[in-house]
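Hi there,

I know you've been waiting on this one. I reran it after we fixed the sequence typo, so this is the corrected version. Both the input and the resulting structure follow.
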Amino acid sequence: MVPPYGSLSFLLVFPLCRQFGLDQPGMALLPLILAMMAAYTASWCEQRQRISLNPMVDAVVAWGSGSGRASPGRVILRAGLCRALWQAALYIACFGLIYMLLAVLSAHHAIPALRAVTWSALYVAALLGAVLSLRTRQAYAVLVGTLGALALLIWGGN
């Protein structure tokens, strides 16, 4: 997950878990997964926004040559406002959808309580996500080495 979408996930999960009393790792897993999907969606939306704003570069170049009216300040303001608005709209939409899903599940006492999921397992999953987000061969090598060492430890313990 590319920053600042880690904070998007946190801002989605924390109030929802607090609202619905999801204080056990197995119960918090569903909102965590949905928040990760929201972060991925935000990353995809940002990529689309960057593509749609590419013509503004030409407008600034034209301004620099004296033939355009789009000053760099105006372009930056427009891009910043556009980004702030779609991020706010995405947060509101994601929060609303996850809230409604959790409200329905809570009303029917159907929020999955996976007792086998522990905080340690969630921390390891978060660590793996952080390593994978680096997107370098060295990070992948560290990940494979760590998983290999973990497999050897588990296999040796049996």
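Quick highlight: The chain is about 80% helix and 0% strand.

Best,
R. S.
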